[in-house]
Amino acid sequence: MKILLILVSGIFVNNFILSKFLGICPFLGVSKKLDTAVGMGVAVTFVMTLASAITYIVQYAILNPLNLEYLQTIAFILVIAALVQFVEMVIKKTSPTLYMALGVYLPLITTNCAVLGVTILNIQNEYNFIETIINGAAGALGFTLAIVLFAGVRERLELSDIPKPLQGFPIALISASLMAISFLGFSGMI
Amino acid sequence: MINAILIPVVILGVMGLIFGAGLAVAAKKFEVKQDERIPLVRAELPGANCGGCGYPGCDAMAEAIVKGEAPANGCPVGGAKVAEAVGKILGEEVSEEEPKVASVLCSGDCDHAPRRAEYYGLKDCNEAVIANGGPKDCRFGCIGLGSCVTACMFDALSMGEKGLPVVNIENCTACGKCAATCPKSIIDLIPKSQVIHVNCQSKEKGKIVRSSCSVGCIGCKACTKVCPEEAITVTDNLAKIDYEKCVQCGACVEKCPTGAIVKEIR
User: Fold this and answer.
1) Helix (H, G, I), strand (E, B), or coil: what is residue B260?
2) How confident is the model at residue B266 (pLDDT cuts 50, 70, 90)?
3) pTM for the complete prediction?
4) SS3 for B91-119, per residue?
């Protein structure tokens, strides 16, 4: 039951982008096209889930026994950076087009605060190992959901008649805020 | 006291080493083998990413050249110099092709081609042409809103005083962007040494051409008779010069009753 709760909470209620406002950079940067948004979502899902698992081990096997909790941030960033490098290699090998499309936003997953946020929240909420992985995956799926929905919205925005001062990022930010408000509707669920 | 510093340093250092070793293994496993000639060829290409070769950019072009899908002299911007350098990398002789230049094949400026309507709208030929083919009487003529000038990445086109674009031959690289954007297909790439061409694209019958433009080709065939090399043919009421046969004697220029065939002064 708790696992289901974590899933729903991560994807809808406490959506990282739309209610915690973490990871806005790739959310705005890679959401112009639907397929690159899906690619970004998959990459972030992979990094977030694995990072959750590894940082859990790092926290409870290395940092806690040695009383080094204050190293949490830097140690977690080290884990995330290594994972992103790994993902970058895999994508470069398997899909050069996706690699080109993601461009600079791929290494920028390293500094995606949603990834660091989910790993630190795992520890703060005192989840066990399974719950940690579920929460990581749920957060990533929420990210993917938000970015894919938003990419669909932006593809339509491209075709619509928008007043000149609002073209580009302004209208994107306005529609993002409207999406965030609509996700507010989930807050009563839990 | 010293331990408080040493332990975190060692822990982080060891973690870094482990991740580094893992990444090194992954880098070997997921190595992307790239033909080492591709970056070399890429370095020789101009890097304008204009797409004049037909590939999405210089990177794609370099890959295509090395794979043999594109010819070594396929870059219209770089010309002979780049073709030679690329050929050297690939170890093959590159045949020299005569450089081409964009040419505006319409003389219907403000003085010669009247307008049948005023156009108020976006200053873009491709927009204007939607409005019943543009404001000019001649439906084959240059609209003169300068979409080709905007399309040119090399500063080789400018709008002349009389409402026709002017090509700066020094800057033109024959990438073909202007030709592709022109809704009336007025601009064509012709060999650089060719100075005689038919400055008209109208396929209308002579009478209609006469009423809509004073310098249009009326398809009278006078040029075909006077040409010593039989290089000119008239199809669809429009004279066409075969540049392979043309010796640029200029007989047609003198004979042409409307002045549609011109000798460019360069």
Assistant:
1) coil
2) low
3) 0.56
4) CCCCCCCCCEEEEECCCCCCCCCCECCCC
The neighbour count for residue B3, using CB atoms within 10 Å, is 8
Chain A contacts in chain B segment 4-23 (CB below 8 A): 7-8, 11-12, 15-16, 19-20, 22-23
Interface check for A58 against chain B (CB to CB < 8 A): the answer is: yes
Closest among B147, B143, B185, B148 to B167, alpha carbons compared: B148
State the nearest Cα–Cα gap between B58 and chain A, in angstroms.
14
Per-residue pLDDT reduced to its tens digit, B102-113: 889 998 888 888
CB contact burial B52-81 (16+ within 10 A = b; e otherwise): bbebeebbbbbbbbbeeebbbbbbbbbbee
Closest partner CB to A78 (pick from B7, B12, B27): B12
Calculate what percentage of chain B has a pLDDT beyond 90.
Answer: 6
Phi/psi at B72 (5° precision): -65, -25
Chain B residue with CA closest to A95: the answer is B32
- ipTM over the 0.85 cut-off: no
The pLDDT mean for chain A works out to 88
Q: What are phi and psi of B197, to 5 degrees?
A: -150, 165
8 Å CB contact between A142 and A15:
yes
Task: Name the strand (E) or helix (H) holding B240.
Answer: strand B238-241
Contacts of A73 in chain B (CB under 8 A): none
